[in-house]
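User: I'm new to structure prediction. If I give you an amino acid sequence, what do you actually give back? Let's try with this one:
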Amino acid sequence: MATIQVNNAPFIQKNFVVSGAFGEPRGSGVHRGLDLAPVGYSGSLYAIDDFTIQYVGFDGSGYGNYFIANNGSGMMYLYAHMASIPPAVGTHIPIHGYIGEAGQSGSATGVHLHLEMQAGTTWQYSAPL
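Assistant: Good question. You get back a string of structure tokens that encode the predicted 3D arrangement of the chain. For your 129 residues, that looks like this:
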């Protein structure tokens, strides 16, 4: 796997490897996001876009600590497996603003960020881009 330099990834401020690609087989389905594993430590996470936190949750058998955000222009984002509880619902995060730390919560098998994106204003768990 290739290591991506930090200047190419403003949402995770460390070098990282793509540890899980979108669409690859997983159990009885396919992986619906992109897994980004920081090299060397848990890794600070930053916003990929200017958005507002719309939902915060914990899924012990899946996403772990996660949130869903909306940019107000038809794009939504899901950040999962965070090390701690994400920012509160209604929190506005500017692009490149600090969000939290990558972690190993939920069903994660190593420290990483699970990132999903989709168009729309209502999150559909089975319909990422």
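You can read the tokens as a compact description of the fold. Here is one thing that stands out. The first strand starts at residue 3 and ends at 4.
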